[in-house]
Amino acid sequence: MISLHQVSKKYETPAGVFSALSNIDLEIRSGEFVGVVGKSGSGKSTLLNMIAGIDRPSSGAVTVAGTPIHEFAENKLAAWRGRNVGFVFQFFQLLPTLTAAENVMLPMDFGKSFPLRERRQRAHSLLERVGVASHADKLPATLSGGEQQRVAIARALANEPPLVLADEPTGNLDSHTATDILNLFRNMASQGTTVVIATHEADIARVIDRRVEISDGTLVK
C-alpha cells in the first residue's frame, strides 16, 4: 500500500537547513495497522505528511497503492488525497461553526463522492459507528475532547478511504477514551483499511501489527 524510498525532507530556517527526515525506506502492507513511535520533534508528523501528500519530499519517492504521489501537481495531489486518504489531526481541526454531522459531510461535499441526498444519512451512520450519533447536531465547542476526536475520525472515513493516517490521535485524551480510540483504529484495520498512527505513547503494542521507531528523522527500529 505504501512505499517510501530514500525519502528526505529539509527545511530552510533562519538558523540554517533543518533535516526533518533523512533517507527513509519504509513499506507498509495493505490492511496493516502500523504505529510510528518517537519523541516530540523526531519526525513522526513529517513522515505522515509525506504519506498523505500534505507535504513533499526534498528527495526520494513516495508511492501509495502504486501511485507516485511525489510527482503530482498540487491540484491533482489534492484531488487524490480527498479520495484516498483520511487524516485525523492531533487537535481535531473541526470547523467550529459547523455541527458534528456537517463536519463529517464536508469531505463528501468537496469530493462529490456520494449523491447529495445520501450525505447526511451517511454522516449519521459514521457518527453512530464511532459512538457519537447523539451529538450529530451539536457544535464542536459543546463536545468533550474524546467526542471531538470521534467526530474527526468519522470525518476521516467520510469518503471510504483505503488509507487512514492519525497524528497523535490519543495525545489529548484520558486513558479510557484513548483505549476506545485505539480500538476503533484496530477494528478499521481488521476490516481492511490501512491505518498508520504517529504517537509518543509506548503502550500501543496490544493493538498494532507493527511498531516503527523514528529518532531525529531516521528510522531506528
Main traits of this protein?
six-stranded mixed β-sheet; alpha/beta; four-stranded antiparallel β-sheet; 6 helices; globular
| Strand/helix succession | EEEHEEHEHHHEHEEE
Distance between the ends: 20 Å
Strand arrangement across the biggest beta sheet: 6-7-8-3-9-10
Strand percentage lies at 25-35%
Structural class: alpha/beta
Question: If you had to describe this structure to a student in words, what would you say it looks like?
Answer:
With 221 residues, the chain is of the alpha/beta class. It is 33% helix and 28% strand. It has 6 helices and 10 strands, in the order E-E-E-H-E-E-H-E-H-H-H-E-H-E-E-E. Strands 6-7-8-3-9-10 form a 6-stranded mixed β-sheet, with helices on both faces. Strands 2-1-4-5 form a 4-stranded antiparallel β-sheet. Helix 3 packs across helix 4 (116-129) and helix 3 packs parallel to helix 5.
